[in-house]
Design a protein that fits this description.
The structure is a homodimer. With about 210 residues, chain A is of the alpha/beta class. Helix content of chain A is about 25%, strand content about 20%. Chain A has five helices and ten strands. In chain A, the strands form three sheets. Chain A has a five-stranded mixed β-sheet, with helices on both faces. The first copy, chain A, has a three-stranded mixed β-sheet with strand order 3-10-9. In chain A, strand 4 (about 90-95), helix 4 (about 105-115) and strand 5 form a beta-alpha-beta unit. The longest helix of chain A has 15 residues, at about 1-15. The first copy, chain A, starts with a helix and ends in a 16-residue tail after the last strand. At the A-B interface, helix 1, helix 2, strand 1, helix 3 and strand 3 of A face helix 1, helix 2, strand 1, helix 3 and strand 3 of B.
Chain lengths: ~210, ~210
Amino acid sequence: MTKEINRVEQAIDVALSGRSCAIVSSGDPGIYAMAGLAFEICKKKNIKITPFSSCERSVNEKSTITVEVIPGIPALCAGASLLGAPLSHDFAAISLSDLLTPWAVIEKRIEAAASADFIIVLYNPKSKKRTRQLETAQKIILKYRDKKTPAGIVVSAMRKDEMVTIIPLEDLHKADVNMQTIIFIGNSTSFTYLDFMVTPRGYDRKYSGDIQEI
Amino acid sequence: MTKEINRVEQAIDVALSGRSCAIVSSGDPGIYAMAGLAFEICKKKNIKITPFSSCERSVNEKSTITVEVIPGIPALCAGASLLGAPLSHDFAAISLSDLLTPWAVIEKRIEAAASADFIIVLYNPKSKKRTRQLETAQKIILKYRDKKTPAGIVVSAMRKDEMVTIIPLEDLHKADVNMQTIIFIGNSTSFTYLDFMVTPRGYDRKYSGDIQEI
């Protein structure tokens, strides 16, 4: 984390000197990544920044540097695509890392997401020092979800050591996971079909003529 | 929705005839999009499909067609990038469309997401026939969130009629939104800095040496 702060501060220094600079993250920079940190540091240092956008936006003061966040394909989309279509309905993304977030907050989120029948996407499920949270998460979710609910596990999506498996929720505590793993736990309608994990888009199929919301 | 089913069925027919076929969606096909529908129809028609993947996956039966889901940049990442970094922590994505999902389920999800301090991403906030749900969602979230909580509104992200605004949650019911709009409602730590909306990555900043989870 200290290295990340240094990276952002160095990039800001380059930009303040009048040159362009890019901070490169994997996946999408806005999801559990570097973009937020960059803005936090700009605010802390009171650096006047303006969006690099063609939209008309109000500019409060004379800007010092221009900032553009360029979206990418987040790990949750890459991982989901390897499983099939697990994310087709409402979902909640939760990081199990309690370095910067109290575990009580994380537990409350797992409980809320499970009780309201969200598809649940777990980031940072386990690290070498932090091993119990995944089993605790599983226990909480099992209070609300059938034990056979599919859980899709994607390690290192789209990289050379990629691994994709689908197991029932009751076996999640046994799964081989690490910090490069994302876990997709289905909602009450999710199912597996052959090698795929799928969540339907709705609870009832209503096809009365040409239904389209405009 | 009928047209979407026809599209998928036609694509399957092309593939069954031995030719390759691509179903093209905007954004990412796995988030509130077409991929789930494609798998549902394959299952309904009992078509034997196998993943187009280099991973070792168990193949249950002789496959008829090979299916690959290619991830894209979802609207939530495109929209977030235009606002700054609203999505840097745990978030819940909820569609306000009750065509296929009972409103009671949607309300329960809004309540759960708000009470557990998720960043909330609202899809399909309003259509010509369906106008009350956004105000109801706002009222629910206001029970748990300060009325000045930033709400980022992105219309037609990255398209020619793109519009990006940030308003306080208390004014959300007045916002000009449609089916091409995504709304990002901050958690309790989200803030605005100049023209940007930002959610910090954690609740406490702890920088004791070189903290890294491995």
